[in-house]
Specification:
Structural class: alpha/beta
Strand order of the largest sheet: 2-1-3-4
Number of helices: 11
Order of helices and strands: HEHHEHHEHEHEHEHEHEH
Radius of gyration: 18 Å
CATH architecture of the largest domain: 3-Layer(aba) Sandwich
Helix content: 40-55%
CATH topology of the largest domain: Rossmann fold
Strand content: 5-15%
Number of strands: 8
């Protein structure tokens, strides 16, 4: 864990006070800040950033919600309040590049903040990892996962909403293992069932919940590991494995966690 290795996570205000301007702002997100499971993903990614000597910082207590869920749930006023506040803070620190592990944040910052004069280069962590691998800065030599079969679930807000299908797969291809696609993948992938504010409301009428059907897609592959790249997908896939009593046989990891394991950080 990052705490055990005493990795210091730089805070934007502290660096700015010393006249330093990091290249990237890491947007932790609500899940990364409050969800115990997703905190592990952020820790894994922070370890990778530290390993690569990347110039980055977080906002710390100055970070708030991106406003994504408020807008999807229909509270446009709250969304705009969050957006304008966030943009003011980002501009104050002269932020140019933002990395996030949350496709919902990625989509909101990339496609919706420009409407409010919030123009930033927004990077999903799978895109960042792919770039580091392509540039030869991140090399996976471990054979820790060579006997594992991995399947990847496309997050809606990364895939269908923003057309990013290749970066996660190229990262996974760099890890010695077997990658097996689900029958529904890329633009035909099935949603995990949590996006658009659905995670925070009761299930609607129907014969089967979406996450259960998606879990069945996972089981059909025979994979040992289901890889996600979104905090919402992480929750739903984990729940699906529990409902199917498969949580001991099949593990659910974020791509950053697999890279962390492969680098043995």
């Amino acid at each position: 864990m990052a705490e055990k290795r005493k990795i210091e996570v730089p805070v934007m205000a502290d660096l700015f006070a010393k006249g330093e301007k990091p290249e990237y702002l890491l947007w932790v997100g609500s899940a990364g800040a409050f969800d115990d499971r997703y905190k592990k993903v952020i820790r894994a990614f922070v370890k990778i950033l530290t390993h690569l000597n990347v110039s980055y910082a977080v906002l710390g207590v100055e970070e708030s919600s991106s406003g994504d869920v408020a807008r999807r749930a229909g509270n446009e006023m709250l969304y705009q309040m969050q957006t304008l506040t966030n943009i003011d803070i980002l501009k104050m620190y002269e932020v140019k590049k933002i990395i996030t592990c949350d496709p919902h944040v990625y989509n909101t910052f990339k496609n919706e903040y420009p409407d409010f004069d919030g123009n930033f280069e927004v990077i999903h962590h799978t895109q960042f990892l792919q770039k580091m691998i392509a540039e030869g800065k991140l090399k996976i030599e471990s054979s820790l996962l060579k006997d594992k079969t991995i399947t990847y679930h496309d997050p809606c807000y990364l895939g269908r909403a923003n057309g990013e299908y290749n970066a996660p797969r190229e990262v996974l291809d760099s890890i010695p293992s077997t990658l097996k696609e689900m029958k529904r993948n890329r633009s035909q992938a099935l949603c995990c069932g949590a996006g658009g504010g659905q995670m925070f409301k009761e299930a609607e009428k129907g014969e089967k919940e979406v996450f259960m059907e998606r879990t069945e897609d996972v089981l059909e592959t025979g994979a040992n590991i289901i890889v996600t790249a979104c905090p919402y997908c992480m929750v739903m896939m984990t729940d699906g494995l529990k409902y199917k009593n498969k949580e001991t046989e099949i593990k659910n990891y974020d791509i950053a966690e697999l890279i962390e394991q492969s680098l043995e950080l």
